[in-house]
Structures are given as structure tokens and as C-alpha cells.
Amino acid sequence: MAESNYTEDDIRTLEWREHIRLRPGMYIGKRGDGSAADDGIYILLKEVIDNGIDEYVMGHGKQIDIELTERTLKVRDYGRGIPLGKLMDCAAKINTGAKYDSEAFKKSVGLNGVGIKAVNALSSFFEIQAFREGKTRAIEFSEANVINDRKGTQKADEPDGTVVTFTPDDAIFNKFKWRDEFIDTMLWNYAYLNTGLTLSFNGKKYKSKNGLLDLLQNNLSEEPLYPIIHLLGDDIEIAFTHSGQQYGEEYFSFVNGQHTTQGGTHQAAFREGLVKTIRDFYKKSFEPSDIRQSIVGAISIKVQEPVFESQTKTKLGSTHMDPKEGQPVRSFIINFIQEQLDNYLHRNPETAQVMLKKIQAAERERKELSGIRKLAKDRAKKAKIHNKKLRDCRAHYNEKHKRAAETTLFITEGDSASGTITTSRDVETQAVFSLRGKPLNCYGLTKKIVYENEEFNLLQHALDIEDGLDELRYNKVVLATDADVDGMHIRLLLITFFLQFFPELIREGHVYILQTPLFRVRNKKMQFYCYSDEERHAAIAKCGKAAEITRFKGLGEISSHEFKDFIGENIRLDPVIIDHHKSIPELLAFYMGKNTLERQQFIIRNLRIELDPVDPEPGASVELGEEAPALKAAS
Questions:
Q1: Of 185, 358, 528, 607, whose CB neighbour count within 10 A is largest?
Q2: Domain with CATH 3.40.50.670 in the chain
Q3: Burial of 499 (0-12, 13-18, 19+ CB in 10 A)
């Protein structure tokens, strides 16, 4: 084997903008196309808003305005405004900022002077404008290269503050699309964590008076068993309750206003503190799972010089509240809960009694399930060796792997579709679980059915979510069914299963629906795969009237070599999103219950028959009206 030359010419130093564009994942996590709440475009928006939040925390500016026009976002804060002479440095000189002095920004969201530069480098258009003491200056960029620097300052009759306008670069974010639902959730979280601040998004106002209490009230999918317990202290706020019907645990955790979607040391201490305090109060060693079953909680802490596990700040790694004082995060939170929650339960015996009954009910259910759970686990262990329905991948979400975020489980209907995906998939990160047919409608059934029904049990073990999402093996769970009536019914049955027993899987944005092309349009020179009638008509216009049109009626009809592209870089996914203001029991009752007449009338009111001028076969589509509970694949 010939030796490769390794010389000084091989050593290269990248400019900061080149490095960000070459390795965006180091700065914003995964790129994505806007179909997931943690996709890069939302991290860009967060980085811009964070600067306005920091100004508000320091006592400057009580409003932040966000405007979305097609694909361009404009964020206006009313803080002090960036000093005009440093505008270029703040937008385009790496590691430049005002937050290195911990006395000025003790508990800031952003600390390292990188965020706004990443927005600049990853945007096809970026403009930053500062208003300060009656003067203004603005600079325009493209991919962090200056395209218009109006040097010098001008007079301005506007309040102090900063305006950032940006359009994420299609070359980085793969034909991205902003989804209002994700922006809506982000802005509500900012409002809950900054009581008194008003945010505006295209005219809609976001403001909270009661912080995490409001967060839980607005996110509970059903009536809580007892009034939300809301505890406030210096640098810490906690709220929690138990829901009546849902399984699992659900947490909202924040550090310095940052939504830590992957938890961290503070969330772990919150869970531990609840168990310890409740055991001590009732003087009984309840199982942690019994105490926390159906719990919905939120925690927010403020830490000096927080350490996160990545630039996107989704998981707290700090072990101390203040590195200089050395106070551990864990003991700070546990001590706070022990004192405040114990006092609360003594002062509110009715709540304490309801909580006790809930824990005891969870304990009884666990013991009743213990026998059948053991049989199911034995069956699942055998299935790991012999299960022909699961084609696993090498990387997993619950392991330290550089591609963990890409891990995906495709749930398919039948061997034909699963065979196509299995042949086409990336064996490193993509797994396939094949259903035998339509799964059971589990609406109204208890968790016992998860263990008794072999298919549900195997799916639960494939995901490893029996005891919560801590060990979830795949970041994305993709429902890959045909786009016909049977396929849509299977999607609904699977979503019912997740909502009934593992709602946090959907709430935390792990469940998607795979879009697959409905048509192929081609001539001798061009070929297009079309996901809608609009795309098909556009393709026919390009290929001419003599174009060959193939209609795909099922996943099994698409060849493996074609399918590879549909689940690769060009994959199109629709996230399954629950409207937080809708009750899960109400939602399941409407779609899956026995309200046949009500559902029939709804379908009749919303049924629309279309005759396609190109393909005269009628196609029916149902549009969800206002009166239907909101469960949808966002598109």
C-alpha cells in the first residue's frame, strides 16, 4: 500500500464562518428541516431571542416582538441596544460578547459569544440593527459575509433595542419550513420563565403571571387529581401534580431560562427529591415508580456559569450552583423540596390524602401486573433472539454514539413494506419493526394489555420505554404506512397506543409520520417524485403531456433503490403534535371511542370529494374542523 504524503500543505486553518458552515452540528445540534422542535432553525431563533431575554433579566425592556414573513424571521427587543461601535464585532467576530463578566450577566442563558455569529453564518440573509440613544446603525450579511455596511450612525426616532432579521440558508437546512406550533411552545416557555415579559408573534401575545403554575395548567391534558403544588425560592421554582389517567412521567425542566429538553442534573435531583420527601412524609418506603407514576412536573433553576453538554444547551451537566461557592445542584434542590414540600403537605392534608391514594393505586396495579410482566419480559428476551419482526440498527439513542440523534425506528404494515425499507435503510441508524396487520384498538384498556398483547409488548421492548423515556432506543419513531384508508387507520391505532400508555413519547416530539411519494412523473430526460397533486401537476408541466405517470398505491410497490432516497437525506417527516389545550381522554374518546353517530356527522360535514382532471379516479380527503379535538401530523 502506497504511503500517503502528509506535509505542511495538508494543515489548514478555517475562518470562523467556514468552520460553522462546515460543522454546524457543533453549534446548533442537528440541522433538520423544521419538522422537529430541536431542529437547527429553531436553535437559531432561540439564540436571537436569548439576547433579548438577557436584557429583560437585567431590567431593560419588557417586550420582544417576533415576526415571521414566509421564511424570514425578525426579532426586535427593547433592551439597551448593542453599542453601535461594536455592532460588527458582536455579529461577526467570534467569542465577542458582554457576558464574560459574571457580575454583569451572572445567570445568563448564553455565555460564550458564539450564538449570534452562528445565526449569521448559517443564514442566507442576516441583518442586525441597533437603536441606542436616538441613533442607529445596521449591517447586512449573507453567510456571514458583509453585503451592506451602512457605516456610521444615523438619527432614529425609535426606542432603544436590537433588531435581528434572518433567513436560514436552504443549503444548510434542506428546504426547511417553519412550524408555528414549535415557535408557539418556545415563546410560551419564555413567558412562563420570565413573568412580566410580553412576547408577540405575528400579533399573538404571550405573557404569564404565575410562571410554572401557568405552564402546568396550560399543558395538562386532563384535570389533575389535586391542585398544582407550586413552590418558589431563591434561584428555584417547582410545580407538580398527578394526573388521573395517563401513565408515565412528564417533566418540563429549565436552567437560566433555557428549556433543557434532555434534563440533566437538576431534573434528576427533582425526581430524587420528590421520592425522598414523600417517603419521609408518609413514613413508608414506596417504590419510586409508584410515587412518580402519572406525575407532571416542572422545575426551573438559576445557576452561575452553567455547564451544558452541547452548544444547544439541552442537557445540564453542571454539578454546582456556583463553581466558586461549591454548592451542589443535587443537594440544593433536594433540601429545598424536603423543606418546602413537607411543609406544604402538612398544611394541606386533603392534597396529602389524595396523593397517598394515587401512590397506593399505582402500587396495587404494579403488584397485579408483576406476574404477567415477568412472562412478558421472558417472551421479549426470547424475541430479541428470534424476533423476525424487528430489524435492529447498530446505534441507539440511549447510548453514547455520535449518530445517536439520527436513530430511527420505522413501524411498517406487512412484510412487503418492511422488506422495501429493510433493504433501503441505513443499517447504522435505521431499524424496522413490522406489524402483522392492524393492531388492537387499546382505547379504554388498562396497561395490562401492553403485556398480554404480544405485538404491543414487543414494540414496548423494542423501544425500551416500559419505565419511561430514559432508555429510549430510537430518537424518532416513524409510522411508515400506506397513504390509504387502511394505512391511516393503522396510524391512528398506533397513536392511540402511544397516547394511552406512553404520551410523553408524543409530547417530547419523538413520533412522526413518513411521507412517501404518491406519483412518479418522468420522460426520457427528467424524473420527479411527487408527494401531492400540486407537485404532480408541476412535474407534468415540466415533462410535457407525453410524461409517464406512475401512481404508487403502497410502500411495497416502490422499488428498494428508489426508496433509499425517500428515507435518506431527502426524508420528509410530519411530526405528530398534540394541542396542549386539548384533553387526551377527550381526544381519544372522539377518535377511538363508541361515539359513532357524532363521528359520522363530523365526517359528513367535512368530507370533500375531488375529481382530478389528470387522473379521473375520485380521491376523498377529510379536513379537520374546529369542533374536532386537535391531533394531527403537522404539515
A1: 358
A2: 387-511+554-633
A3: buried
pLDDT at 611: 46
Q: What is the 3-state secondary structure (H, E, C) of 7-74?
A: CHHHCCCCCHHHHHHHCCHHHHCCCCCCCCCCCHHHHHHHHHHHHHHHHHHCCCCCEEEEEEECCEEE
For the chain, residues classed under CATH 3.30.230.10 are 212-348
Please, is 85 exposed, middle or buried when counting C-beta atoms within 10 Å of its C-beta (0-12, 13-18, 19+)?
A: exposed
Assign 107 a pLDDT band (cuts: 50, 70, 90): low
Instruction: Provide the β-strand partners of residue 205.
Output: 200
Dump the DSSP string for 474-502. Answer: -SEEEEE--SSHHHHHHHHHHHHHHHHH-
The C-alpha atoms of residue 165 and residue 48 are separated, in whole angstroms, by 9
Domain made up of 212-348: CATH architecture: 2-Layer Sandwich (3.30)
Over residues 280-294, mean pLDDT: 94
* Model confidence pLDDT, tens digit, residues 318-358: 666 666 667 888 999 999 999 999 999 999 999 999 999 99
Residue 164 host element (H or E): strand 161-168
How far apart CA 384 and CA 388 sit, in angstroms, is: 9
* Residue 132 β-bridge partners: 135
At 112 the pLDDT is: 43
Is the pLDDT confidence value at 460 over 50?
yes
Task: From residue 44, give the alpha-carbon distance in Å to each of 94, 120, 167, 336, 365.
Answer: 16, 9, 10, 34, 45
* CATH fold for domain 387-511+554-633: Rossmann fold (3.40.50)
**Distance between CA 576 and CA 584 in Å, rounded?**
14
Confidence (pLDDT) at 438: 86
Mean pLDDT score of the chain? 83
Three-state DSSP class for residue 200: strand
Q: Which three cell numbers stand for residue 287?
A: 417504590
In contact, 608 and 549? CB cutoff 8 Å: no
Radius of gyration of the chain (CA): 26
For residue 507, give the H/E element and its range: helix 503-507
Nearest-CA neighbor of 469 among 441, 507, 428? 507
Query: Given its phi and psi angles, is residue 3 left (phi above 0), alpha (psi -120 to 50 degrees) or beta?
Result: beta
Distance CA 321, CA 325 (A): 8
Q: Is the pLDDT of residue 594 over 90?
A: no
CATH fold, domain 16-206, is Heat Shock Protein 90 (3.30.565)
Using DSSP, state whether 148 is helix, strand or coil. strand
Q: Which of 220, 278, 282 is nearest to 250 (CA)?
A: 220
Task: Give the N- to C-terminal CA distance of the chain in Å, as an integer.
Answer: 52
> Which pLDDT value is given to residue 323?
60
Which part of the chain is CATH 3.30.565.10?
Answer: 16-206
The one-letter code for the residue type at 76 is R
Kindly state the DSSP code that residue 30 receives in the 8-state scheme. Answer: -
